[in-house]
Amino acid sequence: MKNLNTIIFNQNLKDEQEKIISGYNDILYNVKGAQAELYRHQAGFTMDIDSLAEYVLHLEDQLSLIKKDYAVYAGSTVCNNCHSARQKFNTLEDTFGHLKSHINAYKEKISLIITMKDKQRVYSLEKEASEDGNEITNIVNDIRHSTLKMNERMEKLIITSAHHSRQSIVIVLITSILLATIVVVIAIRSITGPVDMLVRGIEKVSSGEYDSKVNITSADEIGFLAKTFNTMTDNLNIMTHQRELLMNELKELNTDLERRVREATEELKITHENMLRSETLSVVGTFASGVAHELATPLASILSYLQMVKERIPREDQLKGDINLIERELQRCRNILRGMLDFARAPEQEKMLTNINNILTDLLALIKYQAEYKNIVIKEELNSAIPSIMAVPGQLKQVFMNVIINALQSMPEGGELNVSTVLNENPQKIVVTVKDTGHGIPEEEINRIFQPFYTSKKTGTGLGLSISYGIIKGHGGDIEAKSNYEKGMTFFIYLPVIGES
Questions:
Q1: Is residue 195 domain-resident?
Q2: Number of structural domains found in the chain
């Protein structure tokens, strides 16, 4: 605004000076016109009194206008405290006073020239007036020249002020744009910053981080939204924790239920197998009992008559050998019938304190030579700490004999037989393990080995393991087999430890 005021002030001064210069030009014109008339009259031409008087009158009028404009110019200069212009104004004021005195003198001489009749005196006054006119012309030219210089200076001041104004406007615009940009950025950040924090919080919650918080403490709508968001995450965190607790409880219940179902299924499977086996044994036992009873009597009669016939035949008779063969086969048939009867109805025998290790030691000593003959190595791992149990020794000996003989027969080319005993504490029972390196049996047939008349050998009745199964069950124990086909069989015989009472 200061630059604009300076431009306006200088422009006004320039306009006033232009008017003054225009007045000076008019003065020069009128003075030169009057001088031209004087020169014409001095040259012998007739004086044009009207033109000369008009020039002089115009000169006086123009001087009055200059004085008026000069007063306005001086007042503007003083009001605006332009010291440089004021100094020049003082100089021009002195020059203007000198010009005014010359014009008055010039005017008086022209008046005398017009009114005087003395030609000699007129020529003298014309010469003096011409000198005064030249002096006036010089003074006006000096004043006009100074005024033009002032105008040039004012023009430079106007251009400088305009340049400064442009710079100020550009600076103000740039500063305003920068300030506006800063204000806008601050305003945007004050809005987008909290919004971005809320968005990041929402993304964390959507990814499962329910304990995330938004740190916005403003009291505006965004602060209220952040407070609501934090409350929501707290509730979600509590709900998630409760859900995890419920899921863990449900998982434990499912695990326990699966375990119970698995145990119940296993028990049901074992019970079903035992029932099926018991039913099979019951049916076969009933059938075997009937067959044994039906065949035992005639077989005994045949064997008695055969022995009578055998006694009557001389020793050297060839029929003696055939009769011996028939007798052995009849004895074999009788043994089979006895086995069937034993299977159908095991004879009741009194239980007594029995040491399992002693029974196994006696059996292994009995088969020692047969094992060495077949190139079979016997390894014993009998735990001496196992207690004695209440059992029928003969029946257990029959069970162990059946299992061990089957193991020896499964290793015709030699192998290794491992017999061990251990004591399990919970529940307390003795485990007898018989393991061989024979050919084993297929996995799909492992559940059939305790069925009556099942055998994988070319000879035998298939009743040994069935009878053994019944004996062990009668002692409150259990027997199971595991096969590694073509690598051997393992029998596990479980016998409960029951006190003497």
A1: no
A2: 3
